[in-house]
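Hypothesis: this fold can be encoded by more than one sequence.
Test: take the structure tokens below, design a sequence, compare later.
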């Protein structure tokens, strides 16, 4: 495979875009099953929401905030 990406040469913005692109591609696969630790993280976050220790951020705003931080 000659189309290798040298991650160390990417900017933070490029790395985040690569992660987003990879996730979109992986999640299209019908037989994809998320790892167990994903459920554990979601369960912990749900509990924190119930206890008022966490809150939601609109995804569009969250991505904008991240992009602003790395620019």
């Amino acid at each position: 495979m000659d189309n290798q990406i040298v991650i160390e040469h990417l900017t933070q913005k490029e790395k985040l875009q690569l992660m987003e692109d990879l996730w979109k591609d992986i999640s299209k696969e019908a037989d994809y099953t998320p790892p167990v630790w994903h459920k554990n993280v979601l369960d912990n976050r749900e509990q924190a929401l119930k206890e008022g220790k966490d809150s939601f951020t609109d995804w569009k705003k969250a991505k904008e905030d991240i992009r602003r931080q790395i620019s």
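The chain is about 60% helix and 0% strand. The helical segments are 12-27, 36-50, 59-70.
Hypothesis status: open.
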